[in-house]
Amino acid sequence: MSNLAQRIQSSQRALAAGKTGYDVVIVGGGINGAAVAWLACLNGFSTLLLEAGDFSSGTSSRSSKMIHGGLRYLAKGDWRLTRQAAQARDQLMAHHPTLVQPLPFWFLHQPQGKPKPWQMQIALKAYRQFAKGCQPGRLTAEQLIHATPHYQLDNSLGASRYFDAISDDCALITWLLEAAVEKGLDLCHYTPVETLTHNHDGVSGVRISLDGQPHPITAGVVVNCAGAWCSELTALPDDQVIRPLRGSHLVLPAWRYPAPAALTLEHPDDRRPVYLYPWLGCSVLGTTDLDHTAALRRDIAMTEEEFDYLWRAMLTLDPKARQQDIISSWSGVRPVIVPKDNHNAPSDASREHLVWSEAGLVNLTGGKLTTFLDTAQEILSHTATQLQRPLRRAELPPVSAPVQRDWPIGNSTYTWSQLAHAAEQQGIRHLDDLLLRRTRLGLTLGQELLRYQEPILELCQHHLGWSEQHCHSQWQRFWSIWHSFYSPQPFRSPAS
């Protein structure tokens, strides 16, 4: 049995020793790349996954974490996508209940708000036809006020209630990759693909840099799952473009801003829904939906405009809310596909994914966290056709074994044994890999992590073999990244 760390090392050694040929080479280690890797290995394809940064370091680590059944798609009249999302959500909850858990949603009704309570109840009855477990219902104004004494809801008309689910997007990706490694996946992170290579038949593989030298890798099919960065390898078809939309969130202490459910409120400025919801022992406020016009980097920071927008929403719930309570923030881009001349509002843009192929190459951009298995099977169907290989039915990996738990780290939901397990087995190159993605301590503890510098660095020395000097260099690197992209107000960071 190999873990991620061991397989990364063996994959790098194999490439350095001259291994060049695979059935499938996947570009991108987000949720879709990881799911394709799992299914490719399940089908017996020799597979290599290449990621330019850390696994899940792009869009996939910066989602809202919601595994939702498609109520928002139903509101736009997309019955097919609603049904697909609801079925995928129910399958994930049933298969891996410790990783994907039910989350109640309370849609707060205000006197001038939309939809009206009766309209929402009709929508939820329709939604129940697709999502049997959504359990629609109502909270009276009195029940809502009793359940949310911290917030100012005196004028409320009550709330419409239903269930969806929530997860940790990074944990989903780690689960998929670990399962794929058990089936033979080779993988390398921090290994950007420089270009596609071609022969007379079409795309023949990729070229990476290995020890500073160009290194070609041949593939029966290259699968481009680079997400928002997909078009850096190949252009989209039919005059379509990727429209990066930025979504940002604030992380708050649950003891001060409790969220007994995903409280859904209309923003006072534009009536867009904003959520305050529980996640890993904290409360999260999000999200924004703006065009991202800055350079498309992997690390994206919340802007002052977004911060002010979210905070105005928070003040409608709690006029006494204090900005100094904010623990952290995160921001990411969604790769939405639109025609070149599209000028619709960001919230109106379709969330449908796009798959297109040419000889030796299958591309994906867009997509949703909830439906990763269906999307990966669609990609692999195109791949198997090109390889002229049979394809078995998609299935989820075995449930990952829980890591032994001991003492928690501060007020977080993570324990020291979980942190040690991640450091030893999950392919850590930099401290931000460990504290922002394999665990989410950088988001859920924020600057409280400073109290644990010594034991964290001792753990890294022991499990990663880092020298004392390297540990301190990584500690400084982590905080530079945190202040620039994950602090409560990253736009005030000197480095941003």
Tally of DSSP helical segments: 14
Helix and strand content put the structural class at: alpha+beta
Beta content comes to 15-25%
The percentage helix is 25-40%
Distance between the termini: 42 Å
**Biggest beta-sheet profile:** 10 strands, mixed
Radius of gyration: 23 Å
Choose one word for the global shape.
Answer: globular
Low-confidence stretches: none
Count of DSSP E strands?
18
How confident overall, as mean pLDDT? 92
Which features does this protein show?
single chain; 496 residues; alpha+beta; 10-stranded mixed beta sheet; 8-stranded mixed beta sheet; 33% helix; globular
Structure, described:
The protein has 496 residues and is α+β, with helices and mostly antiparallel strands. The protein is 33% helix and 24% strand. The protein contains 14 helices and 18 strands. Strands 3, 4, 5, 6, 11, 12, 13, 14, 15 and 16 form a 10-stranded mixed beta sheet that branches. Strands 1, 2, 7, 8, 9, 10, 17 and 18 form an 8-stranded mixed beta sheet that branches. The longest helix has 18 residues, at 468-485.
Question: Would you kindly provide a brief summary of this structure?
Answer:
The protein is an alpha+beta fold. The protein has helices spanning 4-16, 31-42, 71-75, 79-95, 117-128, 141-147, 169-182, 304-317, 372-387, 416-425, 431-438, 441-444, 453-464, 468-485; strands at residues 21-27, 47-50, 66-67, 101-108, 137-139, 159-166, 186-188, 193-199, 202-210, 213-224, 240-253, 262-266, 273-279, 282-286, 290-291, 328-339, 354-358, 361-365. The strands form two sheets. Strands 3, 4, 5, 6, 11, 12, 13, 14, 15 and 16 form a ten-stranded mixed β-sheet that branches.
